[in-house]
Amino acid sequence: MQRFALPGLTLVLGGARSGKSRHAEALVEGSGLACHYLATGTAGDAEMAARIAAHQARRGTHWTLHEEPSELAPALERIAAPERAVLVDCLTLWLTNLLVAERDLSAATDALLEGLQRTRGPVVLVSNEVGQGVVPINAMARIFVDAVGSLHQRLAAVAGRVDLVTAGLPLTLKPPR
């Protein structure tokens, strides 16, 4: 496997089942650093449990798993280190967890951006691109789409690399310098 350096922050976007997680995993594994996976999803039903199990089986045993559904910034500050590459999967589940808990999404986004400035190793963030469809009719869905769009724009502005994955094919929107 070819080794390459990851920038401090990489953002990988894509639709559901686009291949974004697999692409992000390949980036982390290609770094040659210890692979750490920070999961934000929880197994609330059988279908989600099956998704989580499939992700874990695909990654294999050389990944260290951390689970944190809501307190992402402190977890990243604790886990990230120069000898580790941390993959966060995924930001849209994280925002969903916060929305359901009636947390302030703007404040959480601010905290994440501030926390990312303090991380000491490369971080790869995975998130669903949800803003390419129609404006949702439901108020909560509109709040969610707006929050995700704002989060993506803010992260893309500070990321060293941004990739969009569609049909398993990555397109680099912002190449590393």
Q: What is the radius of gyration computed over CA atoms, rounded to a whole number of angstroms?
A: 15 Å
What's the pLDDT, averaged over the residues? 93
What oligomeric state do the depicted chains represent?
A: single chain
What is the CATH architecture term? 3-Layer(aba) Sandwich
Describe the protein:
- With 177 residues, the protein is an alpha/beta fold.
- It has one domain (9-174): Rossmann fold (3-Layer(aba) Sandwich), CATH 3.40.50.
- The protein is built from 6 helices and 7 strands; from the N terminus they run βαβαβαβααβαββ.
- It has helices at 20-30, 46-59, 72-79, 91-100, 105-118, 139-158; strands spanning 9-14, 34-39, 63-67, 84-89, 123-128, 161-166, 169-174.
- It has a 7-stranded mixed sheet, with helices on both faces.
- A hairpin with a 2-residue loop joins strand 6 (161-166) and strand 7.
- It is globular.
- The mean pLDDT is 93.
List the helices and strands and how they pair.
Blueprint: E1 9-14, H1 20-30, E2 34-39, H2 46-59, E3 63-67, H3 72-79, E4 84-89, H4 91-100, H5 105-118, E5 123-128, H6 139-158, E6 161-166, E7 169-174
Helix pairs in contact: 3-5, 5-6
